Request: fold
Amino acid sequence: MFAIFLVTCLVAYAGYRLKSLTRSGVVLTVVTGTVIGYGFGWFGLYLLGVFFSTSSLASKYRASEKAPVDEIVEKSGPRDHIQVLANGGIGMVTALGMAVTANEAWLFAYIVSIAAATSDTWGSEFGVLAKKKPRSILTLRPVEPGTSGGVSLYGTLMSIVGAATIVLAVYPFMTLGFEVTLALIVLGLVGSVVDTLLGATVQRKYRCQVCGKLTEKQQHHGRATQYVSGWRWLGNDAVNFTSIATAALLCFFVFS
Ligand SMILES: [Zn+2]
Reply:
């Protein structure tokens, strides 16, 4: 257990040095990693590591071309503690569930929670680079790249590849049949679809008073933005948390 804690500290410190985590993000990463290691052992940490490393690479991939998107999304740059909790909180719940009941469904729910987080991250990090403008998942009207609720063919493909990468990364540790593999990938993808649907409907959106852009930010050019639509308490982190929770819960009921 001490070794797991130590490795988690080292990884979190590396994440800080690589500017993938803020100071508060480091603290929550250590907590998340240790709890997940407690429930799932080294396997749990390994899968978390695959999510962290591939997501960091995805956000650094052609980063300079994503600058316009940073104007729209609520948070960019290193992840803070709320973002770590939004992506890893459900993983902690499944780890505690596993520690208490030893029901294998918790393990599958954990894999799906990581697959959903990866699917969503890859979908947005790669999707914003699509040549064609994304379209709203609901109205199919073109929207600015980076707008929550927008989908592109490329982004959707990368969401599937992201979920599949996590599920296939499980293979060295355990045998999954074809049907289980497929179910876990689909459930991971469900997470990112729920994320997009919430983004298109109830996630809070603002409009900049200076440049007129639709944004998730409460401030633009140092000036307060004007509320446009959505539930005021539902920002990007809450949307992430809810969509991962939905996918993991669905998975738990499928496998228990
Ligand atoms: Zn503006």
About this structure: Residues 212 and 225 are 9 Å apart (CA to CA).
